[in-house]
Amino acid sequence: ANAAAAPDNKSHAIARNTAQPFEAGWFDNIRVNLSAAERRVATLPGRRSVKKDAQAGWLLKAITCIDLTTLNGDDTAERVRRLCAKAATPVRPDLLAALGFADRTLHTGAVCVYHRFVATAVDALAGTGIPVAAVSTGFPAGLIPHELKLKEIEASVRDGAAEIDIVITREHVLTGQWRKLYDEMRDFRLAAGDAHVKAILATGELKTLRNVAKASMVCMMAGADFIKTSTGKEGVNATPLVTLVMLRMIRQYEARTGFRVGYKPAGGVSTAKTALDYQVLMKEELGRAWLEPELFRIGASTLLADIERQLEHHVTGRYSAFHRHPIG
Ligand SMILES: O=C[C@H](O)COP(=O)(O)O
């Protein structure tokens, strides 16, 4: 019962979410019981619930769910190519062999970059099966004209992005214009075509957990394949509390429609321990299917380095210096 699903990148096809008609009744009366949610998060057993010898398996599984990310103003094609190499070989082969997983195909869930680097990443990842995710729609603030957002999505898809991480217009949420949020999200989904869409809510800017819950429901209703917490650029990014609220909405949405929507915490998830906490929460709230990369991603730039350190410790009993794992 303690084991994560097999740590590899085998794909498990799931039915893609389909936009539903706008229905205010699905979210109008949503209430979040803050103290109950806080209590639930506080009782999160964390890494202790994953027994020591199972931890390596869980961490390898976590790697398959990482959207290995670089989103900096000084990004270069060379940096993106190095990131792609790391995504394709995330763990040193000798460590993998020592852990008994030498024969597994193991890579990150995706590589996530700005539009400028989509073609570079697609080229660098050719033959690996690793999708490229592009942050589009005027990331991170999302304040460029709507038409340009759609054009940016289309351009990234043309360059080979298989996944599009969009940002919502926070003002629609903050002013309660849910229909506008729905229409925006629906347009993004249509523009993305076959590329899967992750809706970034920027939860740290939405003021209340109730807003987070409503925005989650509206984005799913409008066809989001994933809901994602943050750009990594807000003052507050992924937290267990917003995660709990968003996962409960995913559960409600599945109960109403039968569609399984994915979840992506992003921003500040930098330690193996935190990754394990999110995995435990996913499994307890939504079940084992949500431990797979089809339904779970972690957006992170430095998490992989800490996971590799923990795996090395698992194998050798020693920690190496962080700078020995400089990328990812
Ligand atoms: O979506 C990914 C985030 O932008 C990465 O944030 P991070 O640098 O805090 O890991």
UniProtKB/TrEMBL annotation:
Transmembrane segments: none annotated. It catalyses: 2-deoxy-D-ribose 5-phosphate = D-glyceraldehyde 3-phosphate + acetaldehyde. Keywords: Lyase, Schiff base, Signal. SMART domains: DeoC (SM01133). SUPFAM superfamilies: Aldolase. It is an enzyme of class 4 (lyase). GO terms for biological process: carbohydrate catabolic process; deoxyribonucleotide catabolic process. One of its GO terms (molecular function) is deoxyribose-phosphate aldolase activity. GO terms for cellular component: cytoplasm. InterPro entries: Aldolase_TIM, DeoC, DeoC/FbaB/LacD_aldolase. Its EC number is 4.1.2.4. Pathway: Carbohydrate degradation; 2-deoxy-D-ribose 1-phosphate degradation; D-glyceraldehyde 3-phosphate and acetaldehyde from 2-deoxy-alpha-D-ribose 1-phosphate: step 2/2. Belongs to the DeoC/FbaB aldolase family. DeoC type 2 subfamily. This is Deoxyribose-phosphate aldolase. It comes from Variovorax paradoxus.
